[in-house]
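Input/output pair, single chain:
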Amino acid sequence: VGVRYRGGQRQVVVDGVEGKLEDLALMVCVVSLAPELDRVFYEAPGGRRALLDAWTAQVVKGHDEAVSRYGVHTKNRLKILLQGGAADWLEAEEFQAARWGVVMLEGRAKYMALVQGHMDGLRVRLNGTAQEVLAADDPVAMLKGKLERSREIDVRLERTSAGPNTLDVVAELEMGEAWVVAKQSSSGQHKRVLLRWLCAHVRALQGLGVAPLVVVDELGAHLDAAGKAEAVEALAGLGVQVWVSDVAMDDHPLVRVVRV
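Output:
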Protein backbone atom coordinates (compact mmCIF):
# COMPACT_ATOMS: atom_id res chain seq x y z
CA VAL A 1 0.00 0.00 0.00
CA GLY A 2 1.41 3.40 -0.89
CA VAL A 3 0.82 6.89 -2.22
CA ARG A 4 2.61 8.35 -5.23
CA TYR A 5 2.46 11.65 -7.07
CA ARG A 6 2.24 11.87 -10.84
CA GLY A 7 1.70 15.12 -12.68
CA GLY A 8 0.99 16.82 -9.37
CA GLN A 9 -1.84 14.38 -8.62
CA ARG A 10 -1.84 12.06 -5.63
CA GLN A 11 -2.53 8.42 -6.42
CA VAL A 12 -3.19 5.55 -4.04
CA VAL A 13 -1.53 2.29 -5.03
CA VAL A 14 -2.59 -1.09 -3.63
CA ASP A 15 -0.50 -4.10 -4.67
CA GLY A 16 0.82 -2.12 -7.62
CA VAL A 17 -2.63 -1.17 -8.88
CA GLU A 18 -3.97 2.37 -8.74
CA GLY A 19 -6.92 2.70 -6.37
CA LYS A 20 -8.88 5.28 -4.43
CA LEU A 21 -8.27 6.86 -1.05
CA GLU A 22 -11.48 5.25 0.15
CA ASP A 23 -9.93 1.83 -0.52
CA LEU A 24 -7.54 2.36 2.38
CA ALA A 25 -10.41 2.80 4.85
CA LEU A 26 -11.62 -0.70 3.93
CA MET A 27 -8.20 -2.19 4.63
CA VAL A 28 -7.29 -0.66 7.98
CA CYS A 29 -8.95 1.36 10.74
CA VAL A 30 -6.91 4.50 11.39
CA VAL A 31 -7.33 6.50 14.59
CA SER A 32 -5.56 9.82 14.35
CA LEU A 33 -4.87 13.04 16.24
CA ALA A 34 -3.69 16.04 14.25
CA PRO A 35 -2.37 19.40 15.53
CA GLU A 36 -5.58 21.20 14.54
CA LEU A 37 -7.33 19.29 17.35
CA ASP A 38 -5.05 20.83 19.98
CA ARG A 39 -7.64 23.58 20.54
CA VAL A 40 -10.82 21.62 19.84
CA PHE A 41 -12.23 22.03 23.38
CA TYR A 42 -11.47 25.75 23.39
CA GLU A 43 -13.26 26.53 20.14
CA ALA A 44 -16.79 26.20 18.72
CA PRO A 45 -18.62 22.91 19.41
CA GLY A 46 -18.72 21.97 15.72
CA GLY A 47 -15.18 20.66 15.88
CA ARG A 48 -15.97 18.53 18.93
CA ARG A 49 -19.04 17.06 17.23
CA ALA A 50 -16.99 16.27 14.14
CA LEU A 51 -14.43 14.38 16.23
CA LEU A 52 -17.19 12.56 18.10
CA ASP A 53 -18.92 11.53 14.87
CA ALA A 54 -15.68 10.44 13.19
CA TRP A 55 -14.85 8.11 16.07
CA THR A 56 -18.45 6.98 16.49
CA ALA A 57 -18.49 5.93 12.83
CA GLN A 58 -15.58 3.57 13.55
CA VAL A 59 -17.61 1.82 16.24
CA VAL A 60 -21.24 2.13 15.13
CA LYS A 61 -22.03 0.80 11.67
CA GLY A 62 -23.92 3.27 9.49
CA HIS A 63 -23.27 6.31 11.67
CA ASP A 64 -21.39 8.15 8.93
CA GLU A 65 -24.36 7.69 6.59
CA ALA A 66 -26.74 9.05 9.25
CA VAL A 67 -24.55 12.14 9.73
CA SER A 68 -24.39 12.74 5.99
CA ARG A 69 -28.12 12.28 5.37
CA TYR A 70 -29.10 14.41 8.36
CA GLY A 71 -26.89 17.19 7.02
CA VAL A 72 -28.42 16.96 3.55
CA HIS A 73 -32.01 17.08 4.79
CA THR A 74 -31.46 19.91 7.28
CA LYS A 75 -29.74 21.89 4.52
CA ASN A 76 -32.67 21.27 2.17
CA ARG A 77 -35.14 22.18 4.91
CA LEU A 78 -33.38 25.46 5.62
CA LYS A 79 -33.30 26.31 1.93
CA ILE A 80 -37.06 25.74 1.67
CA LEU A 81 -37.66 27.88 4.76
CA LEU A 82 -35.56 30.76 3.50
CA GLN A 83 -37.07 30.66 0.02
CA GLY A 84 -40.66 30.16 1.18
CA GLY A 85 -41.02 26.80 -0.56
CA ALA A 86 -43.98 24.43 -0.63
CA ALA A 87 -45.29 23.19 2.72
CA ASP A 88 -45.39 19.53 1.63
CA TRP A 89 -41.70 19.62 0.67
CA LEU A 90 -40.90 21.20 4.01
CA GLU A 91 -42.82 18.46 5.83
CA ALA A 92 -40.99 15.78 3.87
CA GLU A 93 -37.55 17.23 4.58
CA GLU A 94 -38.33 17.64 8.28
CA PHE A 95 -39.47 14.04 8.50
CA GLN A 96 -36.31 12.76 6.82
CA ALA A 97 -34.13 15.04 8.94
CA ALA A 98 -35.87 13.74 12.08
CA ARG A 99 -35.55 10.14 10.94
CA TRP A 100 -31.81 10.34 10.30
CA GLY A 101 -31.29 12.65 13.26
CA VAL A 102 -32.61 9.97 15.61
CA VAL A 103 -30.27 7.39 14.05
CA MET A 104 -27.45 9.89 14.56
CA LEU A 105 -28.38 10.43 18.23
CA GLU A 106 -28.68 6.69 18.80
CA GLY A 107 -25.23 6.14 17.31
CA ARG A 108 -23.66 8.76 19.53
CA ALA A 109 -25.38 7.33 22.61
CA LYS A 110 -24.22 3.82 21.76
CA TYR A 111 -20.66 5.02 21.27
CA MET A 112 -20.60 6.97 24.53
CA ALA A 113 -21.95 3.98 26.46
CA LEU A 114 -19.24 1.76 24.99
CA VAL A 115 -16.27 4.11 25.37
CA GLN A 116 -17.14 5.21 28.91
CA GLY A 117 -16.10 1.82 30.25
CA HIS A 118 -12.58 2.40 28.98
CA MET A 119 -12.04 5.93 30.27
CA ASP A 120 -9.08 6.32 32.63
CA GLY A 121 -8.82 9.63 34.45
CA LEU A 122 -11.25 11.22 32.03
CA ARG A 123 -14.98 11.91 31.84
CA VAL A 124 -16.64 12.70 28.51
CA ARG A 125 -20.35 13.40 28.12
CA LEU A 126 -22.83 14.92 25.71
CA ASN A 127 -24.58 18.13 26.70
CA GLY A 128 -27.79 19.48 25.18
CA THR A 129 -31.57 19.10 25.15
CA ALA A 130 -31.54 17.02 21.95
CA GLN A 131 -30.68 13.98 24.07
CA GLU A 132 -34.20 13.96 25.52
CA VAL A 133 -35.45 12.86 22.10
CA LEU A 134 -34.24 9.31 22.70
CA ALA A 135 -36.35 9.03 25.87
CA ALA A 136 -39.58 9.74 23.96
CA ASP A 137 -42.07 7.01 22.98
CA ASP A 138 -41.71 8.17 19.37
CA PRO A 139 -38.28 9.80 18.98
CA VAL A 140 -38.78 10.65 15.30
CA ALA A 141 -42.07 12.43 16.00
CA MET A 142 -40.52 14.33 18.89
CA LEU A 143 -37.54 15.52 16.84
CA LYS A 144 -39.80 16.44 13.93
CA GLY A 145 -41.89 18.49 16.36
CA LYS A 146 -38.77 20.31 17.54
CA LEU A 147 -37.92 21.16 13.92
CA GLU A 148 -41.45 22.40 13.23
CA ARG A 149 -41.49 24.63 16.30
CA SER A 150 -38.11 26.14 15.44
CA ARG A 151 -39.02 27.24 11.90
CA GLU A 152 -39.36 30.94 12.66
CA ILE A 153 -36.17 31.21 14.67
CA ASP A 154 -34.27 29.17 12.06
CA VAL A 155 -35.29 31.66 9.39
CA ARG A 156 -33.97 34.51 11.53
CA LEU A 157 -30.76 32.70 12.41
CA GLU A 158 -30.36 31.09 8.98
CA ARG A 159 -29.34 27.83 10.60
CA THR A 160 -30.92 24.78 12.23
CA SER A 161 -31.36 25.39 15.94
CA ALA A 162 -32.78 22.00 17.02
CA GLY A 163 -31.46 18.48 16.67
CA PRO A 164 -28.20 16.57 17.08
CA ASN A 165 -26.28 19.45 15.50
CA THR A 166 -26.87 21.43 18.72
CA LEU A 167 -25.23 18.96 21.11
CA ASP A 168 -21.85 19.70 22.65
CA VAL A 169 -19.12 17.42 23.99
CA VAL A 170 -17.90 18.17 27.51
CA ALA A 171 -14.76 16.59 28.95
CA GLU A 172 -13.19 16.65 32.41
CA LEU A 173 -9.65 15.56 33.20
CA GLU A 174 -8.63 14.04 36.53
CA MET A 175 -5.64 15.88 37.96
CA GLY A 176 -4.81 14.55 41.41
CA GLU A 177 -7.90 15.00 43.56
CA ALA A 178 -9.51 17.55 41.24
CA TRP A 179 -11.32 17.40 37.92
CA VAL A 180 -10.45 20.05 35.34
CA VAL A 181 -12.97 21.01 32.63
CA ALA A 182 -11.26 20.72 29.25
CA LYS A 183 -12.59 24.08 28.10
CA GLN A 184 -10.83 25.73 31.04
CA SER A 185 -7.68 23.61 31.02
CA SER A 186 -4.11 24.49 30.14
CA SER A 187 -2.75 23.47 26.74
CA GLY A 188 -0.90 20.56 28.32
CA GLN A 189 -4.01 19.35 30.14
CA HIS A 190 -6.00 19.75 26.92
CA LYS A 191 -3.53 17.46 25.12
CA ARG A 192 -3.90 14.90 27.89
CA VAL A 193 -7.69 14.98 27.41
CA LEU A 194 -7.30 14.14 23.74
CA LEU A 195 -4.76 11.38 24.34
CA ARG A 196 -6.81 9.74 27.10
CA TRP A 197 -9.92 9.86 24.93
CA LEU A 198 -7.94 8.36 22.05
CA CYS A 199 -6.71 5.52 24.25
CA ALA A 200 -10.25 4.81 25.47
CA HIS A 201 -11.46 4.82 21.87
CA VAL A 202 -8.76 2.36 20.81
CA ARG A 203 -9.57 0.03 23.69
CA ALA A 204 -13.25 0.16 22.70
CA LEU A 205 -12.29 -0.83 19.15
CA GLN A 206 -10.15 -3.67 20.47
CA GLY A 207 -13.14 -4.90 22.44
CA LEU A 208 -14.94 -5.23 19.12
CA GLY A 209 -12.08 -7.21 17.62
CA VAL A 210 -10.56 -4.32 15.67
CA ALA A 211 -6.82 -3.58 15.78
CA PRO A 212 -6.47 0.02 14.56
CA LEU A 213 -3.42 1.88 13.37
CA VAL A 214 -2.88 4.91 15.61
CA VAL A 215 -1.34 8.06 14.10
CA VAL A 216 -0.48 11.05 16.30
CA ASP A 217 1.10 14.08 14.65
CA GLU A 218 3.22 16.33 16.89
CA LEU A 219 2.65 14.23 19.98
CA GLY A 220 5.05 16.29 22.06
CA ALA A 221 3.33 19.63 21.39
CA HIS A 222 2.13 21.29 24.64
CA LEU A 223 3.49 18.47 26.81
CA ASP A 224 6.37 18.71 29.27
CA ALA A 225 8.88 15.87 29.69
CA ALA A 226 6.64 14.03 32.17
CA GLY A 227 3.64 14.46 29.91
CA LYS A 228 5.53 13.08 26.91
CA ALA A 229 6.70 10.06 28.91
CA GLU A 230 3.14 9.42 30.12
CA ALA A 231 1.82 9.70 26.57
CA VAL A 232 4.34 7.28 25.10
CA GLU A 233 3.75 4.76 27.89
CA ALA A 234 -0.02 4.94 27.38
CA LEU A 235 0.17 4.58 23.60
CA ALA A 236 2.70 1.74 23.77
CA GLY A 237 0.47 -0.03 26.30
CA LEU A 238 -2.35 -0.25 23.80
CA GLY A 239 -0.69 -3.13 22.00
CA VAL A 240 -1.33 -1.74 18.52
CA GLN A 241 0.93 -0.13 15.94
CA VAL A 242 1.41 3.55 16.77
CA TRP A 243 3.03 6.14 14.50
CA VAL A 244 3.96 9.46 16.10
CA SER A 245 5.95 12.51 15.05
CA ASP A 246 7.84 15.17 16.99
CA VAL A 247 8.83 13.05 19.98
CA ALA A 248 12.17 14.13 21.41
CA MET A 249 12.84 10.76 23.01
CA ASP A 250 15.46 9.05 20.88
CA ASP A 251 16.64 7.03 23.87
CA HIS A 252 13.20 5.99 25.12
CA PRO A 253 12.98 2.17 25.20
CA LEU A 254 9.48 2.17 23.73
CA VAL A 255 10.26 4.46 20.78
CA ARG A 256 11.84 3.37 17.53
CA VAL A 257 13.04 6.43 15.67
CA VAL A 258 12.78 6.50 11.88
CA ARG A 259 14.37 9.50 10.19
CA VAL A 260 13.11 10.49 6.72
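Residues 87-116 form the longest helix (30 residues). The two ends are 18 Å apart (CA to CA).
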